Amino acid sequence: MSVRSDDDWTRESERLLELVDRIADEVVAVHAERVDRDACFPEESFQALRGAGLLGVMVPSELGGPGCELRVVAEMCSTLARRCASTAMNFAMHQSQVASIVDHRGCVPELDDYLRDLVHEQRLIASVTSEVGVGGDLRRSLAPVELDGDRITFEKAGTTGSYCQHADDFLVSLRRAPDAAESDQVLVLARRGEFDLKGVGDWDTLGMRGTCSPPVTISGAGASWQVLPAPFRVIATRTMVPTSHLLWAAVWYGIASDAFDRARRFVQVSMRKDADAGCSAPTRLAHLADRLGGMRARIEMSLGTYERIEASENAESAVGMAEALELNELKISASTEALEIVNEAFLVVGIASYRNGGEFSLGRHLRDIQSAPLMISNDRIRLSSAELLQVYKGRGRFAGPS
């Protein structure tokens, strides 16, 4: 196993970020309008990401990946979102699935082998953690996994299956057994060739059209090692929910950032033509810059919290109530703030932002960002936080343990 210095990691991270910048400009931006118009999966963008080896960036170096920190992956998501929010969101969801396997593979050699294959083959992972009949509750499952010797079978009806028809593999949350409680869940890895999709619904939506997230029923079979060793509640609390909230927030920041950049360019062009034109626009723009900076600062703070959890000796117990509340609030605040920033950018630009296809058009930004409060409803997250606050005793200080 090679040992890398901090300088090595920094150089590798910078190289990968520059690679994402180039792909975003040369490929993702070129196909973004068609992806949105036709509600199609961003195939060309993912071919480029695969070709650059970027689907395995979170796999650790001992398994053949670069082992990127979540902070670096968040920057990648933000960069992609400035060009195509659907591409960025698909990339973010995939990376959250990869992180879930990396963090909770335990001492299962077959899962190590799978991650090596993921790096080599650049496999795309989707998930089915939603389910018909549970009212959007991630922590309940109706469909069980059934064990027969060392073989498993399952069938689950999901309410959404993002990029399900384009994924190589799936992570599926299920009840541990037919007689298990709905809250006694496991996470199962379903590999290409071992599952079937049926009842795939339509995906004709306002925004995020290239995520291709219709209802879907997935059935599959596999080996018992494909049930991740950690309980799903641990995977969700420790990795899946935090990484999802952080990477989604990075995507929303990217959308808001590009909306701000378009508003900034519009003001600069207008002021060069007529210094007295739109006298309120520069003031609005300054306010937008403050809000965008505040949004980024909040994301960076929560990334720091996640990194402290990662570095702790017992990461599972390190996700306490304070950390859970912070990550819940990040999701709510980032989704709300990004939407408001895009709306205010409309007011700065005016009618030019309302026209489709122009240099200053913000229609796609507005439609895509409308999904942010709905991806795990903000009201559901507030309810979860309210339940935590009933027993939370508070930090009581600015530093030290909660």
Please state how the strands of the largest beta sheet are arranged side by side. Answer: 2-3-7-6
Q: State the secondary-structure class.
A: alpha+beta
Order of helices and strands: HHHHHEEEEEEEHHHHHHH
Estimate percent helicity: 40-55%
Tally of individual domains: 3
- CATH topology call of the largest domain: Butyryl-CoA Dehydrogenase, subunit A, domain 3
CATH A-level architecture of the largest domain: Up-down Bundle
Q: Oligomeric form of this entry?
A: single chain
The CATH superfamily of the largest domain is identified as Butyryl-CoA Dehydrogenase, subunit A, domain 3
Strand portion: 5-15%
Radius of gyration from CA coordinates:
21 Å
Count the helices. How many?
12
Number of strands: 7
Nearest-integer average pLDDT: 93
CATH class of the largest domain: Mainly Alpha
Shape: globular
Largest sheet: 4 strands, antiparallel
Q: Low-confidence parts, pLDDT < 50 over ≥5 residues?
A: 396-402
